[in-house]
Amino acid sequence: MTKKRRNGGRSKHGRGHVVSVNCANCRRLVPKDKAIKKFIIRNIVEAAAVRDINEACAYESYALPKLYYKLQYCVSCAIHSKVVRNRSREARRIRAPPQRRPAPKTAGPTGARAGVQAK
Questions:
Q1: Phi and psi of 45, rounded to 5°?
Q2: How far apart are CA 23 and CA 28, in angstroms?
């Protein structure tokens, strides 16, 4: 029988059994190695209230805490919520992760060598 993927849609190579996790959307049990993972880092406070909290804060440079959580989806929910996309047969062979968006640019150079210009 033909194989659609080199790894069979899993990454358990050599392990007989892998613990199951619940999908974050539909609660379906999915093997942990097959689940599509998404790691999210968010501020606890939304952007509109950050300024108000910083003005009311007693400390000068108080860093607001962040929420860190890992979402694990089953394949069907990940496709439906556009976490992953369907790829062509040729594109499936590309194993490199997709390009990440560049970080937002700052106003000017900072750091120890800010005043030094390149020749």
A1: -100, 140
A2: 5
